[in-house]
Amino acid sequence: MAVSRSSRSSGPSRKAGEEHRLSMAMENYLLSIFRLEEQKVRVTPAQLSEHFKSLPMAEGLGTSLPSVSAMIRRMSREKLVTTTSNKEVILTLGGRKSAESVVRRHRLAERLAVDVLQVDLKYAHEEAHRLEHAISPYLESRVVDILNGPTTCPFGHPIPGSGYSPNQGVVNLSNAKIGVNYLVDRVPEDDSDLLAYFMDNNFLPDSPLMVLDSSRARGVITLRVSNAELVFSMDISKLIWVKPDKV
Predict the structure, then answer these.
(1) Which terminus of the chain is more solvent-facing, meaning fewer CB atoms within 10 Å of its CB: N or C?
(2) Which residue ranges of the chain lie beneath pLDDT 50?
(3) Which of 101, 156, 96 is nearest to 132 (CA)?
(4) Same domain (yes/no): 86, 110
(5) What is the CATH number of the domain that holds 81?
């Protein structure tokens, strides 16, 4: 029997405006600005230029300062960011909404890669960069259902729009008190070598730790993790967040 065009399944319905998507490059800029803000880093074209060097080569982002500055000007015309007189880049309300959408897809993709596809944790961030741009609103909803509504990525970072509730007493590792029991809350995700070190030493979200010594003068912090001592630079410790272990 012939099937009329109107009776064929056209896939999941879409609401008006859902198909509009920024370019891959703009999405990567928004993701990077958002993540640098989370790390309490003052975002400038120079800082972005340096940050992009850590992204997968396949992203195709120019890392030179002129190319970054040109994209920031374009994003400013699109009303996604504003820039201050001292070159700080700030997300507009619309830019932040778009950034949260990209970050949400990225962190859901990390969860999908690790929890369902069994991707090694140290590769999850890079693989998520490849997946995030292809996730439609419909697929996003299916991923959320399959993963039972996760609120954080595998590295402990909150997923925007997930209803994430911050843990009480979370502090930056550089400010953690000596002799107090903590659990890892979140770790940096964009350095595969550092992640491999974390994995080898069981230093991942919810792993127990205690600060044995912290010396800003020497620029290092010493921890006890799983009966072993780990030493981090203060720069690395500022990228790690911990929460009280209520034992």
Answers:
(1) N
(2) 1-10, 14-19, 58
(3) 101
(4) no
(5) 1.10.10.10
Orientation angle between helical segments 93-111 and 137-146, nearest 10 degrees: 50
CATH number of the domain bearing residue 137: 1.10.60.10
Q: Which residues in 203-214 are b (16+ Cβ under 10 Å) and which e?
A: bbbebebbbeeb
- The boundaries of the domain holding residue 86 are 24-91
pLDDT at 246: 79
Q: Quick one: which of 246, 243, 242, 207 has its CA closest to 226?
A: 207
User: 33 with 91: CB under 8 angstroms?
Assistant: yes
Could you report the per-residue pLDDT of 106-136, keeping only the tens digit for each? 999 999 999 999 999 989 988 998 899 889 9
Q: What is the pTM of this model?
A: 0.84
